[in-house]
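Lecture 7, part B: from sequences to assemblies.

Below are the input chains for today's worked example.
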Amino acid sequence: MAHKNRIGNIFSLTSFGESHGPAVGGVIDGMPAGVKIDMELLRHEMSRRRPGHGAMASSRNEDDEVEFLSGIFDGITIGTPIGFIIRNRDQRPEDYDHLKNVYRPSHADFTYQAKYGIRDHRGGGRASARETAARVVAGALAKQTLSQLGITINAQSSVAVTEIPQGDTAGGMVSCVVKGVPAGIGEPVFGKLSSQLAEAMMSIPAAKGFEIGLGFDFVNHRGSEVLDKFVVKDGKISTATNNSGGLQGGISNGNDICFKVAFKPVATLMQPVEGIDSHGNKVTINPRGRHDACVVERAVPVVEAMAAIIVLDNVLINRAARL
Amino acid sequence: MAHKNRIGNIFSLTSFGESHGPAVGGVIDGMPAGVKIDMELLRHEMSRRRPGHGAMASSRNEDDEVEFLSGIFDGITIGTPIGFIIRNRDQRPEDYDHLKNVYRPSHADFTYQAKYGIRDHRGGGRASARETAARVVAGALAKQTLSQLGITINAQSSVAVTEIPQGDTAGGMVSCVVKGVPAGIGEPVFGKLSSQLAEAMMSIPAAKGFEIGLGFDFVNHRGSEVLDKFVVKDGKISTATNNSGGLQGGISNGNDICFKVAFKPVATLMQPVEGIDSHGNKVTINPRGRHDACVVERAVPVVEAMAAIIVLDNVLINRAARL
Amino acid sequence: MAHKNRIGNIFSLTSFGESHGPAVGGVIDGMPAGVKIDMELLRHEMSRRRPGHGAMASSRNEDDEVEFLSGIFDGITIGTPIGFIIRNRDQRPEDYDHLKNVYRPSHADFTYQAKYGIRDHRGGGRASARETAARVVAGALAKQTLSQLGITINAQSSVAVTEIPQGDTAGGMVSCVVKGVPAGIGEPVFGKLSSQLAEAMMSIPAAKGFEIGLGFDFVNHRGSEVLDKFVVKDGKISTATNNSGGLQGGISNGNDICFKVAFKPVATLMQPVEGIDSHGNKVTINPRGRHDACVVERAVPVVEAMAAIIVLDNVLINRAARL
Amino acid sequence: MAHKNRIGNIFSLTSFGESHGPAVGGVIDGMPAGVKIDMELLRHEMSRRRPGHGAMASSRNEDDEVEFLSGIFDGITIGTPIGFIIRNRDQRPEDYDHLKNVYRPSHADFTYQAKYGIRDHRGGGRASARETAARVVAGALAKQTLSQLGITINAQSSVAVTEIPQGDTAGGMVSCVVKGVPAGIGEPVFGKLSSQLAEAMMSIPAAKGFEIGLGFDFVNHRGSEVLDKFVVKDGKISTATNNSGGLQGGISNGNDICFKVAFKPVATLMQPVEGIDSHGNKVTINPRGRHDACVVERAVPVVEAMAAIIVLDNVLINRAARL
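Predicted structure of the full complex, as structure tokens:
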């Protein structure tokens, strides 16, 4: 349900913003009316995403103050679209002058140039992780809405590379569990919940893999070993094991929805790397500023936010499933 | 770019059909005018998907004759929507009478019932792999169009489980390579090509994992080990390694686009399994008919089809990227 | 909410078919599960649209038998997409050989050729009123669903031209009233119900004008003359007059929704007319076959069908308006 | 192609903002890269829409300064989404305290309350004409892009009510002509250009009627009187008359696209009117502040803006019509 810079159908986020432009932000459309927004919870989500959070993070100063411009009246959503902006306070565009005609390896410099014939070269532009701030805003509102419906989302990170020399980087994994989704959420065929979650997660910068339930490990097992047998508890049907990760045929079965996302190492190293200029000549790029050695801990609230957007959208769509 | 039973934006497939209803089929909208369709190539694609293809396949008789109802005139596409149907010739619905009020483990019986309060219980209904026939039709047309633009798509399967006892099943992996995509294809942020490919692949029945480039293995490497250095060859910029799988920032870089999809073992075993009835009582389900022991070989043309749909849609959308 | 050959968002119709191809048809996606379909009512709707219906109609033999291929099980909708086809039984394509390289005045021959560089020249192809058969099928299902929610739709036609000489044609007006829509249906700003109804009505072949409530006559009145004062009856708020046509700010106010659609005269005359060939030479086109002198009576069920599609879609979307 | 607060498909505007909240604004997605933006022209468009413009306008002080937050770099579009805001500088919310629990006749107060169960009562909230400022921003960018493709859009207003007593209001008509659209723009069936233009125009506050070409007057003519005969001039096919308004079958024929929009009188009178409170009691509402006696002159740039959005979107989509 994504198209260009929009994700979601009934509940959707359209986002905008380059990393070193005046602001990032977005429009949240389809927010149900009557939800009381806890701004303190929102700020907490934003702080989890912010650089400087986590052991291996950069010190870029992003206080990420969200200004809401519409759709919330006296602290309660009124059903109209919620416009919001987050000013980029720590722009320092001169840090990036040396990158004007240079393509860094494993960055989106070259691909954006190839696509548009023009780009904002400052710090990744639209391809920067900076845009995820807008996702966390929409996700925070979605999470608060889901919470009132008894649905909770929790993710956590793990890093496999045990030692990261000064100037190098690492990737990692984020595991996420969605609890409380009733059976019957998700759409058939192309609109499977697994399909939508995969799309949402793979849209996060640096995400390179997605799996649900046993995921890739399914290929090592026989069918008889991994069937999720039914159990009935307090009159509610569930499954004894959860190899499927909470979905059958792409539709929730009432069990926890469990998935994992793999992130590649940060491509910006704090050591000289070989790039190329727009004429095809090799150039050495020396590091400037400060950058994260590992983003996976900061990706945790982004994964939760994207999951919240998708699950809320599907919960709302499901209201039309029956007459 | 998927919503319920539709995928794609400018080039889209809306599909319909239950496994034991009169037919499956769909509408392909946005097919560019002027493409000569090779019906023999289409039939070849269909035969690759058909049961009975592959070493561990069922013998259900599906000759999968596609009837085109519009949009093609004298063998050439005319830009209008292409309606098509494939009759279900081997219905044998009585094979499924015993499943009317029964939920099979790791099937979508229970989740469809939970969602809609009603379902077609015959052989998986809408959740059956039968619906992938419509995908292969749309994919075949997309592949022929892409071929004229110099883009080719090839997938292959592998099975890790070496021995499958009589009555048990296995899953497997499908690896896919898309060659010839020019740099600049894909959209920013939510519309990343990786994001769309993940959505498309995870919508295939039994798909449980997706990764691009190094994928999950990225977490075992430092950033310095996996940067894709640029090379210039014949004036064309490319990369020496392809850990990223052909994309940076979700946009193609001109290198091959490489991804993998993991499929779980077939959930229908040819041995008695424990299910549950609609009252919550345990029931033993005895196998009837014949079913695939492994679908991964049949999934190969489906993976190619979905890749073709996504890539063609994005190639067309990209025509609007610049003035 | 229309895009190419699809209309509607949660409840949608994607249609296909040329007038002299094998069939027209479509896919209805988002039909709520649990609706019992009365096939006799459907046939009645189809017969109202059929040529030969009405005083000034052609005698083309279209018995318009609808074959449902999915989504309905034992006469009840199951929530999955409803594929359907209507065979074109009376093709006589040789009637149109003389039009192969000819553009008729006020027809879509030239514009389709300009757009696609190729076209099906037989009887209007995709631009023929034949495609409205698919609309009436989707509309019939929507009407039956709305009926269970207490919403009814009735249209009637009027013709202003009192005398139509043998071989000439006339247009006319269709007025439509939707009763029983509760207050609060419709979306803000771009998604106004008036906006969506206008889009839907203007998509009907030969439609050239749309107005709601007083419509164009509003410009002849002062504000003080046309305010719709509130009245309270049995505790329900309504309005004493209905100049606004049942909407304020694009959202229903509980009063009847009333609108009109203007249709131009049929462009196919039963007398010689001057056209042009693909080389730009003038040609005289002599009439063949039989054609309607006035379509406005046949447009009545199409107007009702389009209204039903839009209203049902919005009723379903509205279920997500509040938490 | 509209859904809730978004319009357009490849080129789209998602807008937000209540009349007396902090700001209105939006996100323009799909703007082609490489368009130089003339900010002076933009300001000119904004000034045409502003209250105080026109003979019968209110004196609300809206200087409508547009702040662009992304997507434009060194004055040139870069293909990424364009976020923008316009602060509401003249809020005076206390002017509206008396309306908190009151529904004004022929306003959207009651319908928004019925839909969402909550509303921003200050000055119309989301239903205010204030939101059209965002449309004019997107339209200005679209117009500048179309201008480079040789397409121009011009509208003008007319008022039929000759005398408007002090405190009363009038509606009027806006006629619009789009010149330079090549033949072949627009989509079949539901995506007709006439259909999309109608949707866009009817989404403008107070719009109650739309017609294209002869429109409603078509019903007074025989077919033989209104056929648009072809003419060939300098090798280019066009039509001698333009009763159809530049479209056949919903697709442009190369002639001017001509349509009209009818606007109802402003519903806010500067005299006491009878409303109703939330308990159903009649209340007299005395006017406060200053309001327009006629908006039709201010609607002119909004009509042009909406036409520009639709035409640009369709020009871009048409690039995918052929291989």
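Note for the exam: The mean pLDDT of chain A is 93. Keep this in mind when comparing with the next example.
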